[in-house]
Design goal:
Layout lengths: L1 H31 L1 H7 L1 H21 L4 E6 L2 E6 L5 H9 L3 E9 L2 H8 L5 E10 L14 E7 L5 E6 L4 E8 L4 H8 L3 E4 L1 E4 L4 E4 L4 E4 L1 E7 L2 H9 L6 E5 L2 E5 L4 E5 L9 E7 L7 H15 L6 E7 L2 E8 L2 E4 L7 E5 L3 E7 L1 E6 L6 E4 L2 H11 L6 E12 L6 E12 L2 E4 H6 L8 H4 L5
Parallel strand pairs: 19-24
Antiparallel strand pairs: 1-2, 1-4, 2-8, 3-7, 4-5, 5-6, 6-7, 9-10, 11-23, 12-22, 12-25, 13-14, 14-15, 15-16, 16-21, 17-18, 18-19, 18-20, 20-21, 24-25, 25-26
Helix pairs in contact: 3-8, 4-6
Length: 445
């Protein structure tokens, strides 16, 4: 019995020593493992990861080519089909594509214009330049990394992308691409309107050589309350101050974050202004495009028809697209403008939601040719050389027959001196009051 007792003590002592040494080893491993420290701040990291995941997902929702072009009976046409959307078909396929290489093949303007008018390609176009790194992390050599147009050939192994501003053309090799559905939609598109491309100040713009009849759409609208946006942008319990001036109310979370809400009453224009002050490095083109997605999503607006529309200096703008053309609110306002600087982010947005479409009643409006529009503007004093972009867009007009009902009226919108105005507004502009009108309005959006 005495021998067994000593043997038991030996095993007990040995087990204790092993457990003690093992606990020390595990403690050292845990305390020197980076994952341990990552999980200390897990709630914050989880929030950032969720934001990044949603931002990446939303890139394919908001950055969609808004126009498609192809040839019909030997003529270059704008292609549109409300049921078989070419741009959405391309974007869905884009998610599955692997980019093997991107190579610049030309920067010659004549070659560029030849590609614009090549009947062997289906062309998809963004309203303004986007960057390669929105969609791929592939390394590129130094130089311009932006493009506006995508050219789909009969091959699924490659495509071309192009930049209007400097006539750059890139050849992109692909893996796992299949554009057969896109080609089918292009061939059978119900709307094929003859167009031509005309180079304006910076870009090639679609001109309609003949008058075109456009549909008038109607929508029931709604608008979220001020408290909804205060809650989403400032939180539910941390708003420190509330001040009112000239009928406008400003809510402040602290000195660095505030939200200005529109005036109440019948003249409410639904325009909000969110400002967040924070020191940061000057953002790159890609980071501006990506970060603006995060801020727009925070608003909680209806994003079903929301698309990237314009990128001007440090501002990224989004608009609703109905029937393939953008909607302008309050004459020239867009749905959301995000402006980045080294010390702040400013988000100007409109809370009006196009909620329920009213069945089309056959109402249309015929717009004059784009050439006639340019001639009219030149007579008023706006030279073609100062016009940056021209597009057909919708002007929102209230319909008095029903509360919240609006009609979307097609009209020409022109961007000049970094300002968007409809044709009637530019025709009323007095350019003779100052010889340096453009310089006085430089930087105004």
């Amino acid at each position: 019995m005495k021998f067994k007792f000593k043997l038991g003590d030996f095993f007990l002592l040995t087990g204790t020593i092993i457990a003690f040494v093992l606990s020390i080893v595990l403690w050292i491993f845990i305390m020197t493992d980076d994952q341990h420290f990552n999980h200390i701040d897990q709630p914050n990291n989880a929030t950032q990861e969720q934001a990044h995941t949603h931002r990446t997902k939303s890139v394919y929702d908001l950055y969609i080519p808004t126009n498609s072009y192809g040839f019909n009976k030997g003529k270059l046409c704008r292609l549109y089909d409300s049921k078989n959307n070419l741009s959405l078909a391309f974007t869905k396929e884009l998610k599955n594509i692997k980019f093997k290489s991107i190579k610049k093949v030309s920067s010659n303007q004549k070659q560029y214009e030849k590609l614009l008018n090549d009947p062997n390609f289906i062309q998809l176009a963004y309203p303004d330049e986007v960057t390669f790194h929105l969609f791929t992390k592939i390394n590129m050599k130094k130089g311009n990394r932006e493009f506006r147009r995508i050219f789909i050939s009969s091959s699924d192994k490659w495509l071309y992308v192009a930049n209007d501003k400097n006539s750059s053309i890139y050849r992109v090799k692909l893996e796992k691409a299949n554009f057969s559905l896109l080609r089918h939609y292009a061939k059978n598109a119900k709307v094929k309107i003859p167009i031509k491309f005309v180079r304006l100040k910076n870009d090639y713009t679609v001109f309609y050589p003949k008058p075109v009849r456009w549909r008038v759409y109607s929508y029931l609208t709604d608008a979220q309350s001020d408290s909804y946006f205060v809650s989403r942008l400032l939180g539910t319990s941390n708003v420190a101050t509330r001040t009112s001036k000239d009928g406008r109310t400003t809510y402040s979370l602290n000195y660095y974050t505030k939200l200005q809400v529109p005036k109440s009453g019948n003249n409410n224009n639904h325009n909000f202004l969110y400002t967040h002050y924070e020191k940061a490095k000057s953002p790159t083109a890609t980071s501006r495009l990506l970060d603006s997605v995060y801020y727009v999503h925070r608003l909680g607006l209806n994003e079903q028809n929301l698309r990237f529309f314009d990128a001007d200096r440090n501002t990224v703008s989004y608009s609703n697209y109905i029937g393939g053309i953008p909607v302008f609110l309050n004459k020239q306002d867009l749905q959301a403008d995000t402006t980045f600087s080294t010390d702040s982010v400013v988000l100007a947005f409109n809370s009006l939601n196009l909620q329920i479409p009213i069945p089309f009643d056959g109402q249309t409006k015929t717009l004059q040719s784009t050439d006639d529009v340019v001639k009219s503007l030149e007579k008023k004093g706006l030279k073609q050389s100062e016009i940056q972009r021209i597009t057909v867009g919708f002007k929102v007009e209230k319909d008095n027959s029903h509360e919240g009902l609006v009609n979307l009226i097609p009209t020409y919108y022109i961007k000049a001196y970094d300002q968007w105005k409809n044709l009637a507004e530019w025709e009323k502009q007095d350019f003779s009051t100052s010889s340096n009108f453009g310089q006085q309005n430089e930087g105004v959006n």
